[in-house]
Write a structure and sequence with these properties.
mainly alpha; single chain; globular; about 120 residues; 6 helices; about 75% helix
Length: about 120
């Protein structure tokens, strides 16, 4: 009987969990896509374009780590993944807590988290 109750509770919990919650990797991929589009339309010299493009993989990885370690909410991640442009993505960033925003700023500067 106890097992049946546990199984029912687990089944209900799984059913209530959103199946379409974007993972941190999808957030990072969306930012990379938006950054590449912005870079493609930017008026910059080829060398600057190359240097910025070379930084995108590191930014992608840093965002995954920051999002994961910062336990970004499903609503925030979904907002970012569904952002149609960079301005909308930045609007989603307003949902970050102060600690999450600080961690994101540090990651953007290439700083590693403090122990």
């Amino acid at each position: 009987m106890r097992l049946a109750v546990v199984l029912l509770v687990l089944a209900a919990a799984c059913r209530d969990r959103p199946k379409d919650t974007a993972p941190c990797s999808a957030v990072a991929t969306r930012l990379s896509t938006l950054a590449r589009a912005d870079l493609g339309s930017a008026t910059v010299d080829p060398e600057t374009r190359r240097l910025v493009a070379a930084q995108l993989p590191a930014m992608h990885d840093a965002l995954i780590q920051t999002c994961t370690e910062g336990a970004w909410s499903p609503a925030l991640r979904n907002c970012m993944v569904q952002a149609p442009d960079h301005a909308a993505f930045q609007a989603c960033e307003q949902r970050l807590t102060d600690d999450q925003r600080l961690a994101l700023d540090r990651a953007a500067r290439g700083e590693t988290p403090s122990p």
